[in-house]
Design goal:
Blueprint: E1 2-4, H1 11-18, H2 30-39, E2 44-47, E3 50-54, E4 57-63, E5 65-68, E6 74-77, E7 84-87, H3 93-114, E8 118-123, H4 132-139, E9 143-153, H5 158-163, H6 167-179, E10 181-185, H7 192-206, H8 213-224, E11 228-235, E12 238-247, E13 251-259, H9 268-282, E14 287-293, H10 303-313, E15 318-328
Parallel strand pairs: 6-8, 13-14
Antiparallel strand pairs: 1-3, 2-5, 3-4, 4-7, 5-6, 8-15, 9-14, 9-15, 10-11, 11-12, 12-13
Helix pairs in contact: 2-8, 6-9, 7-8
């Protein structure tokens, strides 16, 4: 068995063999990590990721970093997101047991070297069970809280996916398809001018610049590298709505959307997301994730956040449960 570190020239190749083929890996390609570090550019990050291989086959891959916050807190995370822990499901139990033992040793070494104040990991509860890392952190005394997200199963026929749309959404999607000029841009058709137009729309809608211009350039690189796409919607030649979507070989994630608020009486974003869902299906993705679901009796969500959750549920699918596992000193 070998431990492959990020300075190994074949690290990305090993990552692609395992991480690009799992839902858990959708947001952890090198370019998405580059985006995450730029988004949290007030923090500094040190990469501790590693991949354990057997006969040049990746068995466990871990995307993990030490984040030092502006308040000088040390957090083990996945570059501001959850630690990403992925196991191959194509390995026998005896070998997996040995690989997990090596993982534990390497993880313990990271803990000793970094002495973190906290650790954050989101467990996807595959097969309705805690992962090995989830169990490991819980044994350390971590706490766990449910995280809800909305997902569509794209293995269904398109007509069946359409039937799952909220009744009112069907007419809204149809309105957008007829009245908006929708442009789906991928690696072959996107330009920096397109991404800059999206950025300016986002600034107009948010009424402020929420993140750096460089972060938008990285998202452009992501699309150019076939790791995402954008959908732009024009009304009478004016860009009024847009969405950015991240994907790997199995899953597509709704990253960010923006629509001019003065036109909210018109269903601007519905047809954008529907086109993204159908495009992801054509690309061979098995899942489409619209994102987090919040509920009034769980936590303290604002009315705006509850409205966004309700909006996402309108596209059908099912609400899935994961566990946010947090350990702190």
């Amino acid at each position: 068995m070998d431990i492959i570190k990020p300075n190994n020239p074949f690290f990305s190749d090993y990552w692609n063999k395992l991480g690009d083929n799992k839902i858990e890996g959708t947001l952890y390609s090198p370019l998405n990590i580059k985006y995450s570090t730029e988004y949290a550019n007030q923090s500094s990050f040190k990469d501790y990721s590693f991949i354990i291989t057997e006969n040049e086959t990746p068995i466990i891959t871990v995307i993990i970093s030490l984040e030092t916050t502006p308040e000088d807190k040390k957090v083990l995370s996945g570059f501001g997101r959850s630690i990403c822990y992925i196991e191959s499901d194509q390995v026998d139990s005896n070998l997996l047991k040995k690989v997990r033992k090596l993982f534990s040793s390497e993880f313990d070494n990271i803990l000793k070297e970094t002495a973190p104040n906290s650790i954050f990991y989101q467990d996807y509860l595959n097969n309705s069970a805690l992962s090995f890392l989830g169990n490991y952190l819980m044994d350390m005394g971590a706490t766990a809280n449910p995280y809800f997200t909305r997902m569509q199963n794209l293995s269904q026929p398109e007509e069946q996916l359409r039937q799952q749309l909220r009744k009112s959404y069907k007419s809204l999607v149809n309105w957008g398809s007829k009245n908006l000029n929708l442009r789906l841009l991928d690696s072959k058709t996107i330009s920096l001018k397109d991404m800059e137009a999206f950025r300016q729309l986002h600034i107009q809608v948010a009424r402020r610049e929420t993140r750096s211009a460089k972060s938008w350039e990285i998202q452009y690189e992501t699309v150019k590298n076939n790791e995402g796409f954008i959908v732009l919607g024009y009304l009478e030649k004016e860009l009024v709505t847009a969405g950015y979507f991240i994907q790997n070989s199995v899953s597509c994630y709704y990253g960010v959307g923006a629509s001019i608020r003065e036109l909210f009486d018109k269903p601007l974003l519905h047809s954008v997301i529907w086109q993204a869902i159908t495009h992801a299906k054509k690309q061979g993705c098995s899942f489409f994730e619209t994102g987090e679901q919040l509920y009034s009796n769980f936590g303290s969500p604002t009315s705006k956040e509850l409205g966004i959750s309700k909006f996402k549920r309108g596209f059908g699918g099912e609400t899935k449960t994961r566990l946010n596992i947090n350990w702190s000193k």
